[in-house]
Structure formats: C-alpha cells, structure tokens
C-alpha cells in the first residue's frame, strides 16, 4: 500500500464533509482502502429566531472554513504535508429544509431547517393532493407554506435547495442534488431517477392558480445519482473552502447528498432488505424496500438510496438532545461538587448504569425528550417532560433507562407500521451518537425494535465518511460497479462489527414502557398548552 504522506502530497486523497445539526465534520480518506486518515470538526448550533430554527449563511461558511482548517492541522501534525490538491470531494448535510434565492443569487428568506414544524397545513394539503406522504420537513412543504402564507418573497424565488445543495452550488456553480437528498425535497420516480412528473403537474397547477411566474421544475435542482459527475471545484469555491489559499481548483465533486443517504452508505445499507438507524439529535430508520408500500402512511417518508432505490424512512425529530441535557445536569453537579470526570466517562457511567441496573420498563418513569414537535406522535411543539408514579423507584438507573427508551419511542411506533406492511429486514445497522457508549444504545435498540442490531467498527465515522465514500465512488476507477457492489467488494470486504440480539425481558419491558408512553401522550399535549411561551 502506498504511503499516506505521498498520497496526500500527490493530491490523491478524497475528502468528505457533512453538516450535522451540532457538528460539521470533515474526513480525509485513503483512495486505496477507503479508511479515514485525517479528520477535522467544528461545533455549531441552530438558532430559534422569529419562530424558526435556522442557521445564518455566515454560520455555514465560517463553520465550513474552520472545519477544513482543523482538518489541515491534523494532516500537518500527522504527516507534515499541506493539502494542495484533492482527487474528489463530497458534501452532505441535514436533509430537507428551505434555502430560497432570487435570480441574482440573493437569499430571500431565513434558512428553515428540518426542525421546523410550521408547515403542517401545506404538508397535509400536498399529501391529500398527491396521495403520497409529504412530511412537514420536506422542502416542498416549506415552499408551499410560504405560498399559503403569502410571504412577500415568494414571487421572486428563482431557485431553492437544501443545505448540501447550497454549499455544492457555491463551490461548483452547479445547481444539482443527489437523488437521495432530492427525495427529501419532492417525490422521486425511482424508474426515471427524477422528480415525479404526475406530482409536478399537480403542483404546477397550484402555482398557476396563485398566478406565480414559474413552474416547479424551474426552481428545483437537477437530480443526479451516485457515481455521476456533479461538477468541479471552481477557483472561487477553492478560496471559499480553504482560506489559506493552498487548495487548487479543478477536482471532481460527487452529487451532494443528505445525511440519510450518507448514513446508508456508511453502514453498507444500500441493498434491498437492509436497513440502518441513525440516532443523534434526531433519529431515523431507513429500510431499502423490495416493492413500494401498499398504503399511504403519513408517518413514513418514501425516499431513495443515493443510487435511487426506494426506501421507507421513519423519522423522529427528537432523540438524544434531552438525554444529553440530563447528562449535562449531572456534569453540572460534578462541577459544583469539585469532582473531576471527563464527558466520555460520565456518559459511560450513566449509560451502563441504565443498562445494567435499570428496570426494562423503567418502573413507571416516563420521559418525553421533545425539544421540538414530533410528527409521528402528532405533537405540535416540544416540551421535555418527566412523569412518574409515587412508588416508582426514582434512581439514576431508571431515570436514564427511561431517557434511553424515550429516545426510541417515536421511531418504534413508525417501525410498527412497516411490520404491518410485511417489510422484511435481513440486517439492521446502527450508527450515530447514541452508539458511542459501546453496547448500550445497541442493546436498548435491539429490545425496542425486537430485532438484532449490528454496529460496525466504522460506525463512529458517520456521514462525513459516507459522503467521502460517495466521492470515491464518483471517480473513474470505482464507478464501473453498482454502488452496492462497490461497497460490498471494495469498502466493507474486511469490515468487522458486533451484533446484539434482543432479550425476552428487554422486549417485554420496552413494550410495557411504550404502552405507558402512548397512553400518556395526552399529558404531553396538555403540557404544550400549559407551558406556552
């Protein structure tokens, strides 16, 4: 195998960057074995402004630049070289949302992320019109809600896209999107690998009725599938990415993808009857289907793999945010008590206590970690809530077992729907922050979904590694195979992982917890009304 230092110096390394909800991460990989050789990161956070969860455009660029500079430092420290050239680059980000621009490229409205649940009217009307589930998070829901609200900017829209599509556009000049990310903007026809023509016609009639001066096709990014050339890095784009000015223009970029697609790639879950669960700030399960779902399910998103296969996506807005807040509370106590414990050890201690000593049903302790609204449980807004019986054993183990269970509550309700459709899953892989403490999140999920859960040794690399793999797949030496073949035969041929099976006691305990969770949803809705800002 070639020396890593020479690979980087010769411009053969491949870069993937993903914009997560709280972290922008860069991964540089070796084109020979596809393993990460350097990393960079930047912490960021969304803002609640004017009623919308958003990031400023300046946040995007300063975050990207800081993340890339952090990567350069890692490369310099490890290998003593500077990156002047790259073989290919891929960008990924949180799916959905709304970034709208006029004909001169000026932003027209606040960036509205997937986290906003203000589009219920638009989503419901479009779902009824298409007889196809259009979730509140989807870009088309945001666009149509702006139309229904008669927002001033709507007549000026010339282009709208996702976060990944926006970054890619600014670095290449290409208004394109990977099919997996595009499937979170507007429904995709998997046979034609393009937007569904029947639904486009129906939406264009809505635009005509509103006397708007465009068709939807004129506003949407072009759809590309994995392996296609999505443009090259321009000189302006190179300067935007690398403020040190060393990076040369001209390298290949793969189609920008959403975090759902990169999660499928990073877990080798792009083949039929495979699935993965990404568990972090939000949580979603992706199952590659043998055939389309028979019925309309408003809880299930129908999206695609990065190469266009149909996927059932069960998405919940809330997963680890409130769980992390509880860990933060204990960290605050340790600080107040002048007790030193690093964050990793604190997480391990609390999580393992929950798994080893917590009652599987949490002994009647119910928590709702809803920082934002939740579509699956029909919750309009978030109100983190804790309730318990007077005789519940209120200890650390049961409290954190409840927080772990509730992070999977909404997703379990959605997965029950897929079971009703007789969807078969041969292998379910977990990745994301919930799985960082070895064995804990994996065990809880196996019990919650009553199915074996695998975690690969590479799972911690996440979406940045996934988009780097797609960038590698876009190069000429790799895209002569199908995407599943490339992943199976080249990337994961020697991959190692661990499997945890559900336990009868754990399954029964989670079922009992879920029964209480569902029965108490009315209390959570009342909390939303009682605790109005």
In DSSP terms (H or I, runs of 4 or more residues), the helix count works out at: 19
Strand content: 15-25%
Nearest-integer average pLDDT: 94
| Overall SS class | alpha/beta
- Spatial extent as radius of gyration: 23 Å
Helix coverage percent:
25-40%
Strand order of the largest sheet: 17-18-16-15-21-22-23
Shape: globular
Characterize the structure shown.
There is one protein chain. With 533 residues, the chain is of the alpha/beta class. Strands 17-18-16-15-21-22-23 form a seven-stranded mixed beta sheet, with helices on both faces. Strands 1, 2, 3, 6, 13 and 14 form a six-stranded mixed beta sheet that branches. A two-stranded antiparallel ribbon has the order 4-5. Helix 3 (120-130) crosses helix 4 (139-148), helix 12 (343-357) packs across helix 13 and helix 15 packs across helix 18 (504-519). The longest helix has 23 residues, at 57-79.
Annotate the secondary structure layout:
Layout: H1 4-9, E1 14-19, E2 23-29, E3 36-43, E4 47-49, E5 52-54, H2 57-79, E6 88-93, E7 99-101, H3 120-130, H4 139-148, E8 159-161, H5 163-172, E9 176-178, H6 179-182, E10 188-189, E11 194-195, H7 197-209, H8 216-219, E12 222-224, H9 235-241, E13 252-253, E14 257-258, H10 259-266, E15 274-279, E16 283-288, E17 300-304, E18 310-316, H11 321-336, H12 343-357, E19 366-368, E20 385-387, H13 396-406, H14 409-420, E21 427-431, H15 440-449, E22 453-456, H16 462-473, H17 483-491, E23 497-500, H18 504-519, H19 521-530
Parallel strand pairs: 1-6, 6-13, 6-14, 9-12, 15-21, 21-22
Antiparallel strand pairs: 1-2, 2-3, 4-5, 7-8, 10-11, 15-16, 16-18, 17-18, 19-20, 22-23
């Amino acid at each position: 195998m070639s020396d890593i230092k020479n690979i980087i110096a010769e411009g053969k390394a491949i870069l993937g960057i993903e914009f997560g909800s709280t972290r922008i991460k860069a991964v540089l990989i070796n084109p020979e074995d596809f393993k990460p050789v350097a990393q960079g990161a930047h912490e960021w956070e969304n803002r609640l402004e004017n009623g919308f969860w958003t990031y400023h455009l300046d946040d995007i660029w300063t975050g990207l630049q800081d993340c890339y500079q952090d990567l350069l430092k890692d490369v310099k420290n490890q290998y003593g070289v500077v990156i002047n050239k790259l073989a290919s680059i891929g960008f990924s980000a949180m799916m959905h949302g709304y970034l709208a621009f006029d004909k001169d490229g000026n932003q027209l409205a606040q960036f509205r992320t997937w986290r906003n649940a203000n589009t219920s009217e638009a989503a419901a009307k479009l779902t009824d019109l298409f007889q196809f589930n259009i979730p509140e998070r989807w870009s088309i829901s945001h666009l149509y809600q702006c139309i229904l609200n008669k927002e001033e900017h709507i007549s000026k829209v010339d282009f709208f896209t996702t976060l990944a599509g926006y970054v890619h556009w600014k670095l290449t000049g290409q208004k394109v999107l990977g099919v997996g990310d595009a499937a979170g903007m507007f429904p995709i026809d998997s046979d034609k690998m393009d937007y569904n023509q029947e639904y486009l016609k129906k939406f264009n009639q809505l635009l005509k009725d509103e006397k708007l001066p465009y068709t939807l096709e004129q506003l949407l990014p072009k759809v590309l599938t994995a392996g296609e050339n999505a443009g090259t890095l321009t000189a302006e784009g190179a300067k935007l990415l690398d403020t040190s000015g060393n990076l040369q223009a001209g390298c290949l970029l793969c189609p920008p993808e959403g975090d759902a697609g990169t999660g499928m790639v990073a877990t080798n879950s792009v083949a039929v009857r495979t699935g993965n669960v990404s568990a972090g700030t939000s949580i979603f399960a992706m199952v590659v289907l043998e055939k389309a779902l028979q019925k309309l399910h408003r809880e299930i998103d129908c999206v695609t793999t990065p190469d266009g296969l149909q996927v059932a996506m069960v998405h919940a807005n809330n997963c680890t945010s409130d769980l992390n807040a509880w860990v933060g509370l204990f960290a605050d106590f340790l600080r107040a008590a002048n007790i030193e414990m690093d964050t990793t050890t604190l997480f391990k201690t609390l999580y393992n206590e929950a798994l080893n000593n917590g009652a599987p049903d949490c002994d009647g302790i119910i928590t709702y970690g809803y920082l934002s609204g939740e579509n699956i449980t029909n919750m309009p807004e978030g109100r983190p809530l804790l309730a318990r019986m007077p005789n519940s054993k209120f200890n650390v183990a049961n409290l954190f077992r409840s927080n772990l269970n509730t992070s999977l509550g909404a997703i379990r309700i959605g997965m029950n729907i897929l079971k009703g459709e007789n969807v078969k899953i041969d292998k379910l892989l977990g990745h994301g922050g919930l799985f960082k403490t070895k064995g804990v999140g994996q065990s809880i999920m196996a019990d919650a979904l009553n199915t074996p859960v695998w975690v690969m040794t590479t799972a911690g690399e996440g979406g940045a590694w996934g988009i780097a793999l797609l960038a590698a797949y876009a190069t000429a030496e790799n895209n002569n195979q199908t995407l599943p073949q490339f992943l199976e035969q080249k990337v994961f041929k020697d991959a190692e992982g661990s499997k945890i099976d559900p336990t009868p006691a754990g399954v029964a305990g989670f079922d009992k917890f879920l029964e209480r969770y569902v029965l108490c949803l009315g209390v959570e809705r009342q909390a939303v009304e009682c605790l109005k800002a």
